[in-house]
Each structure stands twice: as structure tokens, then as C-alpha cells.
Input
Amino acid sequence: MKRINFPWRFFLLHLAFSGIILFFIAGCDNIQANEEEDLTAFLALTNASQNGAPGEAFYTPPSPLPEGDHGDLISYRQTDVVLPGAPNFASWLVLYHSTDALGAPNAVTGTVILPLTRWTGSGRRPIVSYAVGTHGLSHEWAPSKQLANGTDYENSNIVAALNSGYAVLVTDNPGYTDGDIPTYMSGIAQGHAVLDIITAALQIPYIPLSENAKIAIWGYSQGGQSASFAGELQPSYAPDLNLAGVAAGGVPADFFEVARYLDGNNGSSFLLETVIGLWSQYPEGIPLEELMNAEGEAAIEKGLSMGVFEALFEFMNTSLSTFAKGGMSLEALMGIPSVNQTLTAQALGNSAIKAPVFLYHGTADEFIPLEQALVLREKYNDLGVKTAYMVFSGEHITTQFQAAPFVLSWLQDRFDGVAVTGSSEPVNPRPVSTANPVDGDFIFSLNQWTLDATMRLNTLNQDVDMPGDSTFTAETNMTTNTITGTMSIPKFPAPIWVILPLKVRLEIIPTEPMSGTASLDNAGQLHVHGHAYVTIKIKSAGLTNYTGIPIGLRTEEPVDFAIDFDGPVSSLGDGTLTFSGETTFPTITGGALAPLFTALMSGPGQEYSFTVLAPEPTAW
Output
């Protein structure tokens, strides 16, 4: 048999070369998947290729719009976003093709935020399309502009998502481009914008995100409507997106019920803004020129110039009939065939979402009624959607931010591929509304919220932690800008080191209701300033919790704890509502040991920190 002389050397060289090529390709894929720690080179390429106009000119779309499919990127440029507490990140403004609720092409702006930290989870870095709640109709309140100024009231949630390692995309929603009016609460248009920004972000040159990445959609209030519509539309509108889950809270699923809840009540501004937004999208369905009187026309002009918080107080408790010709009632307006058809088009729960869904709501919600949101869950269940539902005890704003860690935990499971098991049917009794009256003064209640409190005794340089079952109760009247309330702190042993480690049993008793001022400004900043006066009693002292000797001492005068806070409204739910400062403990009186404890505990410079936390949610 003739021997075949196989070129082994050539084969080995070919194999080695192929291995190098495969390694390079795999390395590039890993880089595209954002698995490299150093993204500097990619950012340099990305920013060098930017083609977006500078400044305000970015918000003027080219006319006519260039050719492109929905989701195609029109232009982008680097932008500076201010997000205190976030990891290092890069951010871009994007202008992209989308589709309005009537099927016409439009252009929408938004923000793409990419953490500059290595993704260490499974698969590619996940992407969260974050749908914002109501920002107001003024173009200055476009989310991209608020993010650039560091003043977006939803920063807390966005930061939490970035700290989880996710890329976060925030659409401005349609209508914040120059010359346009926001199509506020037009669910289909908003859902399209939420989906299309994902496609647009993936088209930013060299951006280290993968088309195979798992995607989640998260929104609350208006954003809950947007997220739900995006989920329902995705199978037909953007089927190639790898949608892993949809989280939607405070969802206005039934516009007829929501309108009745808002009209003439605390949330009247949202109804007026909805009328304007739907008119912008459906001018034939909502013929404002035929329906509005002179006062209504003035209200529309004013509403278009306001952000969400200014409008909230400007139009509070104002019925829509005030603005309608002939004083036409809400029911009469909703009975007009074209109006009825337009509102019906905003209904959710008519199409199945193919990914798992996490819904949540606050039982004390004063803007979006609870029951219609519960019905949405039942509609999804009937459609075979895998749903989970969580109920919070807070009102609308509190729930938006308290829910964030629960939402992110649920999303993490979806990104990790954890299967959704069990029934989607409710596991607890049907929740009922605990909202304050929604007409009259705008009252915000904190009913026995957890009080995480610590005092630092300056003289002894020691911390005294209050019991875990301490509570804070307050009623805040945002109309009169007043707050009243109280702290409830059970008797507790406090270890104090003098020569020996003593266990001193303390009792902190309010001497009068906490009182002060509370307000929410037009920028969404919460301001609370008041005083809580308490008497501190020293009931006993001993070496253990059980061997204390009764001594019956107390402060000669009440201790004044200043209750001062200035910060974002998100603090009501995200665990950052903290009152801290220094106070003076008066002389201790009541017995022979009073001079000793006066020396140990009295005097100025006593520090304190009181953090108020919303109650834990429950599943439904």
C-alpha cells in the first residue's frame, strides 16, 4: 500500500490559526456582551460616531423624517445624566423612529444609560426599558431633560436598576419633540415608544449590548399603563425582542373608572392632562375645540406649561365640567360616541402578555382606584398570563418607590431563568381600598410605619437603638401644609457602659403631638419641618434585663427632637425619609440617682436619627 504523506505541519498551523480566529470571535462576542471590565475603547468609538445635534436642537426631528422602520435610530449623542448613588455609567440621548396609536410614523426622544461595571451575572447584560410615570406636559419636564438636570423624581428607581447592573432605557414618550404636544396616556403610542427605544439603543454604534440580552419592561402609574401596553403589543409589534418579564404598578387599566375617581377630586390634574394628551393623539375622538369653554381653553394653555407637581395643586378638586361648554358633566362627556371610543381604546387586559407579569398597587392610592387594577390581574389570568400581584399599604407615590426592591428581585429571577411556578390565582383575600377621602384637602397618612431610630449619647459616646417595633404615625395635609403625628416606642432595655455594663430600662413618652409644616414643591421636593417633644423615663437599672432596680427617674423637661427633612418625594417609599440632628437632654430628676444619670445622659450634643419605613407588602 502506498504511504500517504499528510502535511501534519500545515494541518497544525491551520488548526492553531483557526483557534486564534475562533478565540478572537468569541472574545469580540464577549465584549459585545459587555463582559469586559474596560469599556473605554468602545465608548470612544461610540462617542466619536455620534451624529445628534447639540443642545435643544436635538429635540427638533428632521423634516421630513428619514426612511426607517419603527425602532430605527435617527440620531444620538452623548449626554450628561445626574444620578446620585448610581455606579459609573455612560449615557446617550437618542432620537428614534416609532409609531403613534393610529399607526402613523413619529419620532421620539429618550435616554440610554449603560453601567460601566462588568456584568457578572448569567448571559448578556440585561436591559430594562423603564417607563416613567406622569411628568407633566411642559417640554421642560421631558424625562431626558430632568435626568440631565438631576431633578427627575424617579431617579431613585433608575439608580436601583443601574446598581443591579442593568442597562436602563428611558423613553420621553411621544410629543416632547419641538412643535408637538405630548400624547399623554395614549397607551398604544406609549407602548410602542417603550419597545422601540430598545431597538434604537442596540443600534448605537459599538454599544456593548447584545441583541440576545434578556429584556424587562418596568413602569408605574402612566408608566404602568405604558409597560402593560408594551407587553400586550410586543408579540406582534416587536416579536424579536427577548422579553423576560413585565412589571407594572399603579396601572390605570380602565379609563372610565379612573376618570370617575379623579374628576373634581385630589387628582383632577391628571384627568385634565389626559384629556389634553388624548386630544393630541385623537383630535377627532376628543374634539376639544367643540367641547371646551373659555376657562377650559385657558386651563389647557396653563397645563401645557406645567410640570406634574405644579399642575397637581393648580387643578386640584376642579371638576372637568368647569372647563366644558354648558357645564357638561363627566358622564355626559364620556357618553359622546367618539370620546367613548377613544377611552375604550385605552383599556388593558384584552391581549395576552407572553412573558410573566408582576403587578402591584397601593391600597391607599388616592389617584388610581385599586379595584380596577385588581380586575386587570383577573383579565390577564383569564388570558393565561403568568401573573404575580403584590399589595402595598401606602398611597400612590409611596408605593412607586417602596416597590422597587421587590420589582428588582422579581426581575432578577426572570433574568436568571428562574421558572414561574404555581398558580396565578390570588393567594390571599381580595384587597380593599384604604384611601383617605379623595375630595377636599389632600391628606397623606403614615399609619404606624416602622420607626428605625437611634440616639447617640454624647457624654458616654454610646448608641442607644430603639426597639424594632417602634412606629411613626403622621397625617400630612398637603393643602394646608401641616403635619401632626406621634412616635410610639415600647419600653426597652438600653445597655449603657459606665464602670459596669448596666441595662437601663427606658421609656420614651410623647408629651404632645408632633406638629409642624409639610409641603411638596413644584420640583418634587418634600419639605417637612416640625418638633416631637418627649419625656424620657429611666424605669430601672441593673446588670441584666431581669435584675433591674426600680429608680423612677425622668427628664425634668421634654426633650425636643426637631423633625426636619428636605429631599426628593421618592424618600417616602425608598427608605431614605430620615430625620436627624442634635438635641439637648435636660436635667434628670426624680430620685437619689438623678445627679448620676444627669452627669451620664444630660447636656447638649445628643445625636439622633429617625428613619421612617413603609410597612411590608403582602401578596394577592
